[in-house]
Amino acid sequence: MFSPIIAADLQELVSKFGLHTDVFIAHLIAFLVLVSIISIFGIKPIMKQLEERHQRIEEGEAMHARSQKELAEVKETSERIIDEARETGKQEIDHAKQTASRLQAELADKASAEARTIIENARQQAEMDTAKQKAALKDEFAALVAQATAQVTGKVLTEADHRTINAEAIRSL
What are the residue boundaries of the structural domains of the chain, listed by start? Predict the structure, then answer.
């Protein structure tokens, strides 16, 4: 039913626009050859380059993600190392403080012991000096008593007399 109408319209179009089937087919073949050549030598290499670029971008994004992950791991590791170093430093400082206080106590004990030794030596020296002074005073006192006795009696005392008078004077003290 529509075939005669379409055929009539087609005839009219051919006559109006000058459509020649031989030329049309040649143009169609040339167009198809041109499309094939552009497709083979133009579009396929461009598509290949676009695909390679797309792959490189994906690889770059994957590398970026790995880098971000590694960076986070490095940051975490460095923070852990810094925390460990801080803790070790605190422990070293505490240990140094304990050692210093222990050394201070030891030095104080040592100084106290030395002071006691010095005081004891000084006391012993004072006692020895006192004993020497007492002995010297006794000897001097005995000599004075002997001299006073010799002057009072008017007699020259012998060495035996001196010893006897000294012994009696010392006993009386």
Answer: 3-172
